From TrEMBL:
Keyword field contains Transmembrane: yes
Protein name per UniProt: Competence protein ComEC
Transmembrane segments: 39-57, 69-89, 264-283, 295-315, 335-353, 360-378, 398-418, 425-447, 484-503, 510-530
Family matches, as PANTHER family: DNA INTERNALIZATION/COMPETENCE PROTEIN COMEC/REC2, RECOMBINATION PROTEIN 2
Pfam families in the record: Competence, Lactamase_B
Domain Metallo-beta-lactamase: 547-747
Membrane topology: Multi-pass membrane protein
Subcellular location: Cell membrane
GO CC terms of this entry: plasma membrane
Lipid biosynthesis is among the record's keywords: no
Length: 801
């Protein structure tokens, strides 16, 4: 290829070095099966039949001309026949499975199933007295026997179990288990015939295969070894090495997603290449022959696939790696694309559900980009004077981004604009971390001290990846909202095609460069020199932290502010403070100890100094009090108790403690959520914008006590109690008489917050209402016209699982 050729030249001529003969077969299996899953089994049958017939006629002609495509057409005929026959029939059997009708009626069922994948945790942010963490797991299984309403049902389909984490999270693939619960219809284009919402623990457990038990023992050993690392790194390393994200911090998971790095925690071709490549390099250094090297690498590959588990991306990478090693043993070069084609066709025929799996699609497309685009683009960059290593470092993430962006946009409804940069920065440390992690996993059970040493060697790499993801996620415009679904994906694909075609033309390239330069000249100064956020002279900001509370109160000193509550999880409140430029927090007030008010405390301490943490008299729930006490003690930060009448002053800000006046004589163990809410610290803040009443989650009894005690509750700004719940008395709102009402609430919450009657009562007293679920971060300011609200307008979405 001419190094001066255009990087977008990816037509057939530029693919001269690749063997494309298995591509039609792979496309037939994948697209034909996907069409059937979306539209009906008969579409798969028609696609497979058409491909087989076309391949037979074309093959006869190719034999006459001795074309090199004969073998590829033969593969297409075979795959077409398999798609039209067994694959279509499997889709038809799933569509007509008797369990679907029972699921549509919502019947109760008891069934014996065989687990097919490791349980996937469903994480939830903390709320009220429930701490954050994994409360549910999703388990893929195949049905062995079913009883629906005391009547046997004939089914051999696939099912998803939605089960409580306790008792279910430790199940392994191949294990037989009996469960009871309520059926619900399955969603999406897949072979799953029903979903069972499980009640109670599993019973009649069967043993898992010995190799699965061994793999779980190694994974558990790696998690135990990682305990020597800091908490975030300890959760990340198992994800990098074997895709085990069970201990991963929700904050790190969100940051990796927003910065376009989440693929690093899904075992795929990159992990297989690192593992097999390391074995091959070692054996080559020892002058071992190619066939013996390939056999040793194949053994390592088989062990790694079992260790990582039978996820679609793992199986795709494993099959592709096995084909590549076979090609190495036979002395064939340039086998990457045939290996990919064989893997796609073979796996989809073996398991048609993979055709609709997003992880499988991302893995295949990313690999195709690395095989077809990255080498040509790297060669083009080298031809323009870019050093070879840097050229490959730029071309690889760019090619992966171009190929996967349409799928990601359609799946997530967003596009990460920083993913190329973050992946370039991350690439150098992924291989060392993976190699050290795999060695620690294998060696640790036999030589623990060596395993701990190897794990410690992964700490710098893991820390670097977290730093890159964190800064990438915080970058202005890092994630752009995009239409979701098929139309959103097709729109991204169309834009990329237009861009690739445009840059092939000299004048179009000039126009694109001018447009990009103009956009940078306009947007960068606007964001950096005169940013829209934070607004000048803000007095208070209600942070969008999801379903929870966090209010920042400015002092007269730039970068110094008081924080009241920290939201339900680490991350969002830290990001809010960073956007506001707050690096010093003299005091954090925790209004009460419910999880949605204390969950983000840990992240506030990062990158900023904190003077003290203050609480009210409440000590319930006990686990939350212990968590706060332990965190402050570990960091050497004073933990104070506020009392009624206490006054605190800073330049430009004062706080007066008005409550809690609600008194309970119940023990900590006897206090329910309402009692804990009514024990919230109530503060009145004096700010340049006026008086701000901070009410925590006080409900009707505490509001009545405040009014009965004659406390001065008048305020221009009200932080509405309990996320705008219906337990807010109209008389209380009339006495406060706010001009502005801040409702801190999460989008899509299941609690009915804010309640319509509360919003109507706020409107009746003339308050301007701002909600974090619709407005994002919301600032109270004083401008030339007086008191005003400014909304950042980027609300946090529904809680992620």
């Amino acid at each position: 290829m001419n190094p001066s050729a255009d990087p977008s030249e990816v037509d057939t001529a530029s693919w001269r070095g690749q063997d494309l003969r298995l591509v039609p077969a792979a496309a037939t299996a994948w697209l034909g099966t996907l069409s059937g899953l979306l539209g009906g089994w008969w579409i798969t049958m028609l696609c497979g039949t058409a491909a087989a017939v076309l391949a037979i006629f074309a093959g006869v002609r190719a034999r006459r001309t001795a074309s090199r495509w004969v073998a590829g057409l033969g593969a297409l005929a075979v795959i077409g026949a398999l798609t039209a026959g067994p694959v279509a029939l499997r889709i038809r059997a799933a569509e007509q499975d008797d369990l679907r009708a029972a699921a549509a009626r919502g019947n109760d069922a008891t069934m014996r199933v065989v687990v097919t994948e490791r349980p996937r945790p469903v994480r939830g942010a903390g709320y009220a007295d429930r701490r954050a963490g994994t409360r549910l797991v999703v388990i893929a299984a195949t049905v062995d026997a079913v009883v629906v309403d005391e009547r046997g049902v004939d089914s051999a389909g696939r099912i998803l179990l939605l089960a409580p984490a306790e008792g279910w999270v430790d199940l392994l693939p191949g294990q037989q288990v009996t469960a009871s619960g309520r059926l619900a219809p399955a969603k999406g284009a897949e072979l799953t015939v029903a979903v069972l919402s499980v009640r109670g623990p599993p019973w009649a457990l069967g043993p898992a295969p010995w190799w699965q038990r061994a793999a779980e023992s190694l994974r558990a050993g790696l998690r135990e070894l990682c305990a020597v690392l800091p908490e975030e790194q300890a959760g990340l390393v198992p994800g990098l090495v074997v895709g085990d994200t069970s201990a991963l911090s929700p904050r790190v998971e969100r940051e990796f997603t927003d910065s376009g790095m989440s693929h690093l925690m899904a075992v795929s071709g990159g992990n297989v290449a690192i593992v097999c490549g390391s074995i091959l390099l070692l054996l080559r250094a020892l002058r071992v022959g190619p066939r013996t090297s390939a056999a040793a690498a194949a053994a390592g590959l088989a062990g790694f696939v079992v260790l990582a588990g039978p996820a679609p991306s793992v199986l795709r990478a494993g099959v592709m790696g096995a084909v590549g090693l076979l090609a190495l043993a036979l002395g064939r070069q340039g086998s990457a694309l045939p290996a990919l084609g064989f893997a796609v066709a073979g796996l989809v025929v073996a398991d048609p559900a993979m055709a609709a799996d997003f992880g499988f699609a991302l893995s295949v497309l990313a690999t195709a980009g690395l095989v077809l685009l990255a080498p040509r683009w790297a060669e083009w960059l080298v031809g323009r004077g870019v050093p070879s290593g840097y050229a490959e470092g730029l071309a690889v993430p760019l090619a992966a981004f171009v190929m996967t962006a349409p799928v990601i946009a359609g799946m997530a409804g967003s596009v990460s604009l920083v993913s190329v940069v973050t992946n370039v920065l991350a690439a150098p440390v992924v291989a060392p971390a993976t190699v050290c992690g795999v060695l620690a996993t294998v060696i640790g059970p036999w030589w623990p001290s060596a395993g701990r040493l190897l794990v410690r060697l992964t700490e710098p790499e893991a820390s670097w990846l977290i730093t890159v993801a964190r800064h990438g996620a915080r970058a202005p415009g890092a994630v752009v909202e995009w239409p979701g679904g098929w139309w959103g994906g097709l729109l991204v694909a169309g834009l990329l095609v237009v861009l690739l075609v445009a840059i092939r033309l000299r004048y179009a390239r000039i126009l694109v460069a001018i447009a990009l330069a103009g956009g940078l000249l306009v947007s960068v100064p606007a964001r950096v020199l005169a940013p829209a956020w934070p607004p000048a002279s803000w007095s208070a900001v209600a942070c969008d932290v999801g379903q929870g509370d966090a209010v920042v109160l400015a002092t007269a000193e730039p970068g110094r502010a008081i924080l009241v509550d920290t939201g339900p999880e680490p991350g969002p409140v830290d990001e809010c403070l960073s956007r506001l430029g707050v690096d010093r927090v003299p005091l954090i007030v925790l209004s009460h100890l419910h999880a949605d008010h204390i969950g983000g405390l840990e992240s506030v301490f990062e990158s900023r100094s904190v003077g003290a943490v203050a609480v009210g008299p409440g000590r319930a729930p006990a686990w939350a009090w212990q968590q706060v006490a332990d965190e402050t003690a570990r960091r050497g930060i004073p933990l104070l108790e506020l009392g009624i009448g206490q006054r605190l002053d800073w330049p430009g800000l004062s706080l007066e403690v008005l409550g809690p006046r609600y008194v309970t004589r119940r023990s900590v163990l006897e206090q329910d959520g309402t009692v804990i809410n009514n024990g919230s610290v109530v503060l009145r803040a004096g700010t340049p914008a006026g008086r701000l009443l901070l009410t925590g989650d006080v409900e009707l009894a505490a509001q009545a006590d405040l009014m009965a005690e004659g406390a001065d509750l008048r305020a221009e700004i009200l932080k509405v109690p309990h996320h705008g719940s219906r337990y807010t008395a109209p008389d209380f709102l009339n006495i406060v008489a706010p001009r502005i009402a801040l409702v801190s609430v999460g989008a899509g919450n299941g609690y009915g917050h804010p309640n319509k009657s509360t919003l109507d009562n706020l409107a009746a007293v003339g308050a301007l209402v701002a909600r974090t679920d619709t407005d994002g971060d919301t600032a109270v300011v004083v401008d030339a016209r007086g008191l005003a609200l400014l909304r950042r307008g980027e609300p946090r979405g529904p809680p992620r699982s």
